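Q: Hi! First time asking for a complex rather than a single chain. Here are the components, and I think there are two in total. Is that enough to go on?
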Amino acid sequence: MASKYQVPRGTFDVLPGDAHSRKRVEATAAEIFSRAGYEPIATPAFEDTELFERGVGRSTDIVRKEMFTFEDKGGRSLTLRPEGTAPICRAYLEHGMHKLAQPVKLSYCGPFFRHERPQAGRYRQFHQIGAEAIGTDSPLADAETIMLLSDLLAELGVPGVELRLGSLGSPQARSSYLEDLKAHLRSHEEELSKDVRERIEINPLRAFDADDEGTQGVMASAPTIVERLEGEDADHFAEVRALLEGAGIAYEIDPTLVRGLDYYTRTIFSFVCDELGAQSEVGGGGRYDGLIEQLGGPPTPAIGWAAGIERILLALDEAEEAADRDAFLAVADPSQQRRALALASELRRAGLSAEVDLAGRGLKGQLKHADRIGARRVLILEADGTAQLRDMQSGEQAPVDPAGLIDAIVGGAS
RNA sequence: GCGGCCAUAGUUCAACGGUAGAACUUCGCGUUGUGGUCGCGACAAUGAGGGUUCGAUUCCCUCUGGUCGCCCCA
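A: Yes, that's all I need. Here is the structure of the assembled complex.
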């Protein structure tokens, strides 16, 4: 009988079988962050709504239609965090981290919330791993953070990953470019597909991705933002590219790269995976030199990224592996249950994995269960106080001295 | 938020509008306390609510959820 209750739309339970690979992803990230000096930070699951409105941008899809916003009993408007960068910048300011040696390098991992229509790789509660380097505008930081994510995906073995790189320049350069692009599109309006035409004002960059011939013809002569970068923006981007090339990181310049959050400036990047469906971005980020100032702090350049754990797992498509046990303590007679549990506890304190039957199975059932959980050895406790040690691989079984039980198992395990 | 497809045991799949079956899993049995292979048995399901019909798992509607695409993003 199925329960009338089920997980809320777009959410999921992490069951024991999935927990292992998920943990591996988190542990690998933690290791990579630790080696590079990106200290862990954790912020609350919800924040003042205004933090996201100001930080992410009121005109973005995220703020306009994807936030879980609620009022607390004091009438404050709170929002389940839809992303991690604005909260971290809030924490940076709130705790005076600008007084620390710059840049401040941080990493995080946790749940985020967006009210979107669920589909493969897109959930309403999802989990991100992220890194931020706050307080430097050096291209070195851009390259380092990108390399961190590249290393993570490589170490995890995510297949078919490709890095897309772009630069938005300064906010002013970006908006003047967008005006020019819109003008270009409008002047060729008849040649564009209906789809693209309708989105000229909303998202003109999308036109670069169109498949229809007419639009592609128009876009061939369209200006791209990367070729229009000037002065320091251009130098910065050139340096980032040189650093990535020097490190042997392959990338592709993507003039159509769009980040739907208002705070991005200069470098933006995205790691896509061809094993995924429509939600092909496995991780991405960019520079946000104006965000901290936007939140009321001093001008503070910064860069960071986030990667979706569910998307990584989807791309890895790992088969769950059966966990091994060093020993299973079987009882030939229920009178031995106490002894079994005590011995199991002792083995566990010695650092071994051991289980006992908790379901009242017969000896046959216990052996079967021991086999199922991958126990290497089964210790059968006899009613008369003696014991037999059975090797589950060879099937060999011999009596063991009750006094030396622990030694027999510990010794056999090493 | 918009379109397409879908919804049956714990899981994966069957069933011309007429008795809901199977496989895997779980539990038990295969003699007298010993796992894997094999055989036998047991537990166990039509997402919810309406409608059409003598009769609905099957057709229609609504809801819920999933999935794919759009949009957007991690």
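A: The radius of gyration of chain A is 28 Å. Let me know if you'd like any chain examined more closely.
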